[in-house]
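#struct-help
A.M.: can someone run this one for me? Single chain, 402 residues.
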Amino acid sequence: AALALDNGLARTPPMGWLHWERFLCGTDCATEPRRCVSEWLFVEMADVMAAEGWKDAGYEFVCIDDCWMASTRDEHGRLQADPKRFPRGIRKLADYVHSKGLKLGIYSDVGNKTCAGFPGSYNHYELDAQTFASWGVDLLKFDGCNSGTLELLAEGYRRMSLALNKTGRSIVYSCEWPFYLRPVQQPNYTEIKQYCNHWRNFFDVYDSWSSIKSILDWTALHQDSIVKIAGPGGWNDPDMAMLPGIFVFLSQLVIGNFGLSWDQAVTQMAMWAIMAAPLFMSNDLRHISPEAKWLLQNKEVIAINQDPLGKQGYQITKDKNFELWERPLSGQAHAVAVLNQQEIGGPQNFTFSLTFLGNGLACNPACFVRQVLPVSRDCGVYSWVSSLSVEVNPTGTVLLKV
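D.P.: on it. Structure tokens below:
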């Protein structure tokens, strides 16, 4: 059977919208209908994504997270949607999402219960894969709660991968396998990439700067083990639920929510592009500021994230509060991020030699530099021995293309 690495999917990091960080496990549709995890939430998000430029920018998945299910399986042992909140079932919802030119993602769990206590897929992997395929699902986020032993966890992730491919339907497979392994043992990323299209490494992202900062710090600390495995067909996901508000789910972008300043939102967008992270927004696209929309739909940043070379970026130096990151791109280009971690004071200048970039080759003998964020502008032509100085706001990032 074909493995996830060979299923032809996720040649670039997936992009879409996910409900979790913003809408959590809202099931009270009577008193909070617009915050409830229901068919209508996903219908409205699909409408907005198709009508307001999100699909055209590359965001193609509308993803259901936990809490969509009924409390029990049906009489044939199959998962079923909550009949009150999804009265027409998942198949009809998938048909509607597809009619908008988008794809539908869904959620299940490797254990006997999901993280919120709904029925899990343990001992039902093949049946659930067939069910999802029959509904027209295009992505499965497979969580790792209530899985028992690490052996059962690994067996469940492998079996679901094979079961999805056996259906014959193209279903992107999003795993949380390494996140649940790390407290006990070092994940085998070579094996994980064999079965999964992207995988979660770290805790849930929250709508806060401290959450974003901790993800960046963790990634830099572990980059020697995770950067080399990322590439077409398999991606590191900083968190299965992207930042609330402005960004997305799988590595959820939280841009457009409530907890980040503008500079911090710029940092998340820039750094998720550098890290080749899946871009899953978790926000309310029905109510989003023009500034957040501009940032999330920024074509130059998305082009860096989606670069076909498929190499993940990495931190190349740290100097006091400043961090310098780079990502090799196709066409002998590089994306460069200068991050200012300082949380006090005003803007500061950071000067670095261009010989730092691309093992000394990025600007040899010369290069053209363009600033992408926080505003786009041409910086000019520089020689190999030149230095470049940028001004960066506290908790902000300047993103460049060289």
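A.M.: thanks! The two ends are 42 Å apart (CA to CA).
D.P.: also worth noting: The chain has two domains: 15-306, 314-401.
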